[in-house]
Amino acid sequence: MKIKYFLLFLxxxxxxxxxxxxxxxxxxxxxxxxxxxxxxxxxxxxKFDYTERELIHLYDVNLLVNLLRITVYILASLIxxxxxxxxxxxxxxxxxxxLITIGIxxxxxxxxxxxxxxxxHETLFTNNYWMLSSDTLLIKTYPIEFFISxxxxxxxxxxxxxxxxxxxxxxxxVHTQYKSCNS
Length: 183
Known about the structure:
- The chain is mainly α.
- It has one domain.
- The protein is about 80% helix and about 0% strand.
- It is built from 7 helices and no strands.
- It is elongated, with a radius of gyration of 20 Å.
């Protein structure tokens, strides 16, 4: 029973972090600077001229992105291992995890984005290098509207993945009930 609650904690975190990671590495944003930043997050060199503040912030972001990626891999491995050895409750866990994650996504969608954006930066960065001038390349490439759009896509992706988990959980329950009625 305790494993079930542990999974109900881990799976929503995994869904959220996985979707953040997927959006960060999305090449569909047609911009050479963005593509170069994705390459930078994958260990390649930066090609554009950034101010010292931008470079410091980019290295901080790179560290966070790599920690995010490692965390996603660890969570995925841990969840799969736990589910592999606890198959009997997998569909109930998927159903409940999907519901919990949708609840989290709905709560996040109600929060003022600008306040969330600032709190995010104040919490995850130990310096103020994220406060950049509006004439810097990073701010021109990634204005606040980019992050608002990113956040909206994140919420939508989280809800879609959660609905899939709920659907899988419900299908198994319907299948089980159907089998018991026809036995």
